[in-house]
Amino acid sequence: ILNVEQSPQSLHVQEGDSTNFTCSFPSSNFYALHWYRWETAKSPEALFVMTLNGDEKKKGRISATLNTKEGYSYLYIKGSQPEDSATYLCAFTTSGTYKYIFGTGTRLKVLA
Amino acid sequence: DGGITQSPKYLFRKEGQNVTLSCEQNLNHDAMYWYRQDPGQGLRLIYYSQIVNDFQKGDIAEGYSVSREKKESFPLTVTSAQKNPTAFYLCASSIRRSGNQPQHFGDGTRLSIL
Question: Considering only CB atoms, which residues of chain A are within 8 Å of chain B?
Answer without folding.
Answer: 4, 31-32, 34, 36, 41-46, 49, 51, 89, 91, 93-95, 97-105
